[in-house]
Amino acid sequence: MMLAANARMYAVTPTVKAAWQELFAWVAQDAGVPLAYLDHAAPAPLEALWERGDLGAAFMCGFPFASAAVKQQALAAPIPSPPRYGGKPQYCTDLVVRADSAFVRLSDTFGGRIGWTVEHSQSGYRAVRNHLALRDARYAEWVGPLVTPRRVIDALLAGEIEVGPLDSYVHDLLRRHEPETAAKLRVIESTAMTPIPLLVASPGVADDAVARLRNALLSCHAAPELAATLDTLLLARFTAVDVADYDVLLDRARAADLSLSARVGVPPP
């Protein structure tokens, strides 16, 4: 059975998308499990991708993974290579403004407009709520759903918002492969690190196929022929997943809901 692979969440440029396709092709061959790269471009909802029954390796955000009644099968989590990740499968949200803006601190943007992607997104929504729950932050308008990090950037550069969230791994890939766009942005603050989106397979995929795909992912960093591909992806390696690690995302969301429930100028849970 041909299974689907997808890296839309981190296919930030055509070059990066091609590198993910190269990686999945190697994983398929090493595991002996046929994978076909599935295009699922925005604005098609990611939820529709995650609900498919034929996923062999697709990135899934941690918050919907943790909150799903029936979980997808965890394969592995990426460890990005930039130093800020500390060799761990974690990421954060960079809160960005236009590079030419006068904002110095995040608090300088309070009272303005902040962008968000979709409610199930950890980096594009939940992490922002969690971060703002720690302070008396209020905005005149929450602009969204903008759906993708790229649309957040577009809204920021068009003056539709003053500040917006970027998945830090997306941001690092953009800095590497599209520096002319990254140069127009400036990080004004970053949220705490949390478990990074993981690669999953559909619940109905056979255990043996899942095990072979997982083993291939966990060993790909040792393949010399993948060195350039992993460098393109800013990827050190993949690591095994403890699904319980993602429960912290639900805990933080509940705490933020309690803190923000009595405020104005904040988004609904």
Give an overview in words.
The termini are far apart. The chain has a six-stranded mixed beta sheet with strand order 2-1-3-12-4-13. The protein has a three-stranded antiparallel beta sheet with strand order 9-6-10. The protein is built from ten helices and 13 strands. It has helices spanning 14-31, 46-50, 62-67, 122-132, 149-157, 168-177, 179-182, 207-219, 227-232, 247-260, and strands spanning 3-6, 35-37, 55-60, 73-80, 90-91, 93-98, 113-115, 141-143, 164-167, 185-190, 194-195, 198-201, 235-239. The longest helix is centred in the N-terminal third of the chain and has 18 residues, at 14-31. The chain is of the alpha/beta class and 269 residues long. The protein is 36% helix and 21% strand. It has two domains: 3-83 and 197-243, Periplasmic binding protein-like II (D-Maltodextrin-Binding Protein, domain 2, 3-Layer(aba) Sandwich); 93-192, 3-Layer(aba) Sandwich (D-Maltodextrin-Binding Protein, domain 2).
